[in-house]
Amino acid sequence: MKKEEFLREIEEIVGAKHGTVSMESNLQDLPQWDSMAYITFIALADSKLNLSVDANRLASCKTVRDLAALADISLD
Amino acid sequence: MKRPKAALHAISYHLPERVLTNEELASEYGGWSPDKIEAKTGIRKRHIAGPGECVSDMAISAAKELFATGACKPGEIDGLLLCTQSPDHFLPSTACLVQERLGLPTTCAALDFNLGCSGFVYGLGMSKGLIETGQARKVLLITAETYSKHIHPGDKSVRTIFGDAAAVTLVQAVQSEDESIGPFVYGTDGRGAKNLIVPAGGFRQPFVVNAETTEDGSGNKRTINNLYMNGPEIFNFTLSVVPETVSRLLAMAGKRMEDIDLFVVHQANQFMLEHLKRKLKVPDEKMPILMAHCGNTVSSTIPILLKDLETTGRLRKGQCIMLLGFGVGYSWAGSLVRW
Lengths: 76, 339
Known about the structure:
Radius of gyration of chain A: 11 Å
Structural class of chain B: alpha+beta
Shape of chain A: globular
Mean pLDDT of chain A: 87
Oligomer: heterodimer
Mean pLDDT of chain B: 96
Largest sheet of chain B: 5 strands, mixed
Order of helices and strands of chain B: EEHHEHEHEHEHEEEEEEHEHHEE
Low-confidence stretches of chain B: none
Helix content of chain A: 40-55%
Strand content of chain A: under 5%
Largest sheet of chain A: none
Strand content of chain B: 15-25%
Radius of gyration of chain B: 19 Å
Distance between the termini of chain A: 8 Å
């Protein structure tokens, strides 16, 4: 998955405007980074990456870059 | 004379009068609009039991409605299985209270069993066992919950999803060569107990008076006496067990996905169901999602969905239906029903 595509997915999940989320964005500063967003991220990893994401590790992520690392995405 | 077969004969359900709308929730919590709540959960409203309204009251209303249809008479019932996790009392069994209030015979077997979202399928399996071993001929399978009484008013994560309800399903003996219920597959994994739990109120951790209210990272408030759900872990559990349960059931029945006319799946929330539908590659028309009017009613979602599908003509005689229930425990079960 390309970096831009990943960021668009995160923007979609948290209901943020296009271009407002970066790899360094703090998750707690995003508009809707809540339990529903966790579930949506798990669904994204399952459907697009065929990957199971541990919910406790997800909860410990601080930035968007942490999410990418958790999903084992090498962003081009 | 050959042993009778068990068949699902009739369903009725009851929703409490009080309604909790998305508009009310949005005005209380902020952040999410009513439309956003519906888009995420698939729910427009939930019915909430009144302060003095208990599981037995809702069960009685649903059962009386079933008797009023002429499906059977109270005096014919010889088995009563009641699935709940919010009983009227620790003891006696709520089933005993329901037996008396419905005027069922004193020769009727009656018991409660404690399961959540897998409860209907487990109850169907037990009903079949009672009937096909000659222990009962007409079993009332009651699923009833007042989860709202477990929920903290400040916990958006569960208050948006769960609604109260009771459903009554009549399973009865028929003389037939063909099986109309089964086979069944079951599953249990107690490692997930902590992820959907009311921690206090039993004897491991007695009810705490003036319990401290805590707030999680998403702003949801609860005490140790309230329902706690780790939604992301429950979602992971579902992604793990549901596809496997479908495969086990198909293998056991010697059927393929194409042989199943309808997948009647526990109505947990719309997002989860839409994802499962894509994962299982089931067409939209074969996996209905109908929970906007009542939310996730725990063990009653499957019978409520069956009843609504029957009422709207989407369930037709002879169809092969896969039932799938999964949740608290963890506990899960699947079965086939020939309608």
